[in-house]
Structures are given as structure tokens and as C-alpha cells.
Write a structure and sequence with these properties.
The protein is an all-alpha fold. It contains 14 helices and no strands. The relative contact order is 0.13.
Length: 354
């Protein structure tokens, strides 16, 4: 039979851990709530500051004054600013982002249609960037000042300095127009338009789930080039940060002790130093992924990729402010969600936080 003296410390430790995790959850939720409120306020003010009249975008420039006033009242623009903001928050939290003037669909339906394309592009770009960038950064740190380090620096400088639209155009010219290794602009070829039933919204996954392998390889051929262009930015960022973190870790006492004990260099670098460097690297990867999700506007425009960035650009050019603000709000929410997820993963991976 367990004594009271044995059970009390265990209960106390469980209670202390529960209180710590409750405080962490409460702090994270409070941060998310404040950030979301700020995001809603900024998007609302943007809609009121930009020199675009949403009423004219609906009724046209030649509408009669009574028609204009009726449309303005229907949109709630005749109410005080604070009341408009309260209505805006209420609509957002009920999933109502308004209706797009350009497509005549609700903005939510439009975003559901275009966001998977951006998710597909950014996810593959991040995978490519991390698969190359992390080993490149590790080798640059191990061979600091030698030729692997110089190669990593040149690649990083190239990824940061060269405009992404120029890289996209040159990639299309070389790999599509000259060599014919990949398919051209667009998400799928003309023969495969609406060929695959959307399940996840990601064409390569949907085609594989349905066993439509011709459509799968066609979609993959269209996807590989724009995702590789995006991966160059991710690779430059991740490799530079991986190099910095690894240089710090390789100077730690536990690395010196492991080498003195005769542990193999491969194990010291790839199992011990990289494992500790991976904790701050999670945040770097998450931020890189979020940047690719929101920063693929030029890539989507060059490759005629029907994603969120291109949707926002077309909406802005056509004064469709509901669509622009809805897309901006989604991008901001993605940033908040990715940052929160990286914090959680960092706490789970790093035992010191537990």
C-alpha cells in the first residue's frame, strides 16, 4: 500500500506541471487574441483609408444618387466608424467576409478554392528548401571558412539578392521553352482541366488518391518549377540560420566532451549538435513557410498559378476590396497560426522547457 508521504510529492509535481501548462496556454491564447484583434483593426482601417469606393465598385460610376445611397446604407457605411468596426468583427467571426465583386462569389468560397493551390506551392517549396538548406548549413558550419562554407554563402547571397520574378522568367525560358523538361505556366494542362475531383484541393494528392496517374504527372510537371523557384528563398534563409546555430552548438562543452570520449564525428554533428540546433531552427522553418504562403504573389503571377496571391492581386487591380481584405486577413491568420505552432513544437522538442 502506497503511503501518503509517497503520493503527496507525486501529486504536487503533477499539480505544478498542470499549473505551468495552464499558464502557458493562457498566455499563448491571450497573445493570439490580442494579435487577431490588431489584425482585424488594421484590415478594417485599410478598407477605410484606401482611395477606393466599394460602393462605386458595386453600382458603377454612372449610378443614380439614390441607388448609390441605398447601396451605401446596405453596406453599413452610413453608420459611425466604431459601429462599422463592431459589425465587421461580428461578420468575420461568423465566417462572413463579404462577396467578391469580381467573381460574384462569397470571399470565403473563393479563398477555399484558391488557397489549396498556394498551400501546395509553399509546402513543396519549404520541403525542397529545408531538404537542401539544412545539410548545406551544417556543412558550412563544420567546414567554416573553407569551400563548402563559401558555396553556402554564394547560394545564400544568390537567393537573397536576385529578384524572384527574374529567376522565374529565366527558369521558364531555360527549363520550359529551351529544354522542355517541365510543363509551362498554369496548374495543370488544358487536357486535365477539371479532370480530377477535388478532395483536398491539392491536385497532386487528389490525382494520386483517385489513381489518375497521367493527371498526377502532369500536375507534378507544372508544380516542380514554381516550387523550386520559391525554394531558393527558403534555402537561402534556412541554410544561413542553420549555419549560425550549428557554429554556436559546435563550440559547446558537450561537443568537446563527446569528441574527447572518442565518439564518431558523424554522430557528434548529426545526432547531438544538430538535434540541439534544431530547436531554434523550428521557428526559422515556420517563418520561412509563412513567408512563402504570403509572399508567392510574383511567383503565382509569372507562372499563372491560381493561388491566393494571384487572387489578391487581381482583386486589388479591380478594386474588389472585400476580396483583398479577406485574403489579407487569411494571410495574417496563417502567420499567427504558424507562429503558435512553432512555439508549441519548440516546447515539445526542447526538454528544458518541460
Amino acid at each position: 500500500m502506497t503511503s501518503v508521504a509517497e503520493t503527496s510529492p507525486r501529486k504536487s509535481s503533477y499539480g505544478g506541471a498542470a499549473r505551468r501548462w495552464s499558464a502557458i496556454v493562457w498566455r499563448e491564447l491571450s497573445t493570439v487574441a490580442i494579435t487577431m484583434f490588431g489584425l482585424l483593426l488594421i484590415t478594417f482601417l485599410i478598407a477605410r483609408v484606401v482611395p477606393i469606393d466599394p460602393v462605386l465598385a458595386i453600382v458603377g460610376d454612372n449610378a443614380r444618387p439614390d441607388v448609390y445611397d441605398a447601396a451605401r446604407a446596405e453596406l453599413g457605411l452610413d453608420k459611425p466608424l466604431w459601429q462599422q468596426f463592431a459589425i465587421y468583427i461580428g461578420k468575420v467571426f461568423t465566417g462572413d467576409l463579404g462577396r467578391s465583386v469580381l467573381t460574384s462569389n462569397t470571399v470565403v468560397d473563393d479563398i477555399k478554392r484558391v488557397f489549396p493551390a498556394t498551400l501546395e506551392l509553399a509546402t513543396l517549396g519549404t520541403i525542397f528548401g529545408c531538404a537542401i538548406g539544412i545539410p548545406l548549413g551544417v556543412l558550412a558550419a563544420v567546414y567554416q571558412g573553407r569551400w563548402p562554407d563559401q558555396i553556402a554563402r554564394v547560394i545564400g547571397l544568390f537567393g537573397y539578392s536576385i529578384p524572384i520574378f527574374w529567376i522565374g522568367l529565366m527558369a521558364l525560358l531555360l527549363f520550359y521553352a529551351k529544354l522542355g523538361w517541365v510543363a509551362g505556366p498554369g496548374r495543370v494542362g488544358v487536357a486535365f482541366q477539371d479532370f480530377v475531383t477535388p478532395i483536398t484541393g491539392i491536385v497532386v494528392i487528389d490525382a494520386a488518391l483517385e489513381g489518375e496517374w497521367e493527371a498526377f504527372w502532369d500536375a507534378w510537371s507544372h508544380l516542380i518549377l514554381p516550387s523550386s523557384v520559391l525554394a531558393l528563398f527558403s534555402l537561402a534563409y534556412v541554410s544561413r540560420m542553420a549555419r549560425s546555430f550549428m557554429i554556436t552548438e559546435l563550440q559547446q562543452q558537450y561537443v568537446i566532451a563527446a569528441r574527447v570520449k572518442g565518439m564518431s564525428e558523424f554522430r557528434v554533428i548529426w545526432r547531438h549538435a544538430l538535434r540541439n540546433a534544431f530547436v531554434p531552427l523550428i521557428t526559422v522553418i515556420a517563418l520561412s513557410y509563412a513567408h512563402l504562403l504570403e509572399g508567392s504573389v510574383l511567383t503565382e503571377t509569372i507562372f499563372a498559378w491560381p493561388g491566393l496571391g494571384r487572387y489578391i492581386t487581381n482583386s486589388l487591380l479591380n478594386a474588389d476590396m472585400n476580396a483583398v481584405l479577406g485574403g489579407t486577413l487569411v494571410i495574417g491568420a496563417v502567420f499567427i497560426g504558424v507562429n503558435l505552432l512553432s512555439d508549441i513544437l519548440g516546447r515539445l522538442v526542447d526538454p528544458r522547457t518541460r
